[in-house]
Amino acid sequence: MVKDAGANRRQAARRGGVAVIMAALALAPLGVVACGGRGGGDGAGAGRDGDASGDAVAPPDAVVDIVADRAGGGVVEAAAQADGAPDGGDGAGAGGSAGDGPDGAPAPDGSADGAADPTLKLVTFNIRYANAGDGANAWPLRRDLVFGVLRAQAPDSAGLQEALFVQVQDLAAALPEYQRIGVGRDDGATAGEFSAILYRAARFDVAASGTFWFSDTPDVPGSSSWGNASIRICTWGRFVERATRRAYYHFNVHLDNVSEPANEKSVQLLMRRIAERPVATDPFVVTGDFNSDESQPAVRYMTGAAPLAGMPNPIPLRDTFRALHPVATDVLTFHDFMGGTAGAKIDFIFMGPGESALGAEIDHTEVGGRFPSDHYPVAARVAMTAWQ
What we know:
The strands form two sheets. An eight-stranded mixed sheet has the order 1-2-7-8-9-10-12-11. A six-stranded mixed sheet has the order 5-6-4-3-14-13. It contains six helices and 14 strands. The protein has helices spanning about 5-15, 140-155, 165-175, 260-275, 295-300, 320-325, and strands spanning about 65-70, 75, 120-125, 155-160, 180, 195-200, 205-215, 235-240, 245-255, 285-290, 320, 345-350, 355-360, 380-385. About 15% of the residues lie in helices and about 20% in strands. Strand 8 and strand 9 form a beta hairpin. The radius of gyration is 19 Å and the shape is globular.
């Protein structure tokens, strides 16, 4: 049965708001990046995911080199630095050097380069696609807020949702300490929304990366099945720490805002791909806008609380936020540019069963009543037990 989860969340957004909840074990100062969506938002009424918007047109020569992924399926990026992404170089910029805290502060372990730090700072952020029809909330009027949030959070890697090509270009220019992986979902290159991952280039290299589609043909760019209202994807990367050669996988998703059955099939495919990752001993994290809340089957499957199609999740995950805030109720993350605290959480940072959350929060950054996106970003610091 198909239900309009997006409509339910819009009603929830109008009833209340979101509370900033910080863990006792320090997170870096906050202020997050957005990965825009309208409650799963996908540009309804403005072309598919806003692609018809006047400020969302990619130049014709902006092409990503891709090759068929023979190991993990989908599309693998032949060059991690695509579409004008910065080279990362020495990591100079607002975020400081690898392992450093915000604005060049010392790394959490007190070392100069963070090499001894077995933790990761992570963010998931739906930044809302660039839609000229958003008026006062259009991308050019709020992008500096998005940049500010990312600088303040200073993640090691951040999963974005709904970013169009023009937005990933703007992020690359504003945040030169980060590089990105990811492709547009419509064509596996630059068209449509990206579920891009930004990563701190001074600390990490990309050993492998790719994108697959939530469909019966996940290796085919632009494919869609299962009743999805829009094309849905997962972008993933294997990141290797330069100083230590420790590695982790980051999977970043944006699931459907209309069909819960489609989301149930999507999370099953996601977990199969995670279970089949080539370096199975590496830890992993999952970020995303799931467009399903904690009571719904797709999210319950992710945490091992419920099977799907009679099958349990082969690797039950833990929600970093719930690991530290198990009874919090004001956890709204989609607020439709209205703010508030009361409602459901649909944006998640999941960690593997062996990792530990040191900090977790929903970031409610606003400036003068204006918000970076229609979603609040979610942030977490995770102790990577496999690294210790």
